[in-house]
Amino acid sequence: MSGLSMGNIYFTALEFFGLWFFALLALAAIWAVLAVLALRTAPPPDRARPRFLALLAGIVAAILTALLLPAWTDAGFHHVAVLADYVLLISGAAGIGTAVGIALLPVLWLTARPRS
User: Which sequence ranges are marked TM in the entry (predicted)?
Assistant: First the structure.
């Protein structure tokens, strides 16, 4: 039994994502740094605006993903025929929208801070 060692996880991710794995790893590191900076600094006086903009960007990304995902997979909407196809399409779009909203929140929080 091989288990879930770090080596297995690394090589599985490298096999699944290919060369995109390193770009995603760099993006995750940049996001972590921005999130730490955003949490360590004073919060903006108006917290609702960055949250609203991140939510709006996530919703737009989810809608665009739902519309464009069949074309990205070399399929069309005529291939989406079964209920499972619609559930997976909506789930993928919701996941992308959530990821976009979470990724943008620290950036929007940092830009909404008052300049000193």
Answer: 20-40, 52-72, 84-110
Secondary element (H or E) of residue 71: helix 48-72
- Asked if the structure places residue 1 within a domain, the reply is no
Per-residue pLDDT tens for 56-85? 999 999 999 888 877 777 776 666 677 677
Q: Is residue 19 part of a domain?
A: yes
Q: H helices then E strands: how many in the chain? A: 4, 0
Is residue 26 included in any domain, yes or no? yes
How many domains is the chain built from?
Answer: 1
pLDDT at position 76 is 65
Side-chain half-sphere exposure of 91, counting CA atoms within 13 A: 6
pTM score > 0.85 for this model?
Answer: no
Domain containing 27: what range?
A: 6-112
Distance between CA atoms of 55 and 75, rounded to whole angstroms? Answer: 29
Angle at 14 between CA 8 and CA 16, to 5 degrees: 100
Structure tokens at 101: 């909203």
- Neighbouring CB atoms inside 10 A of 35's CB total 17
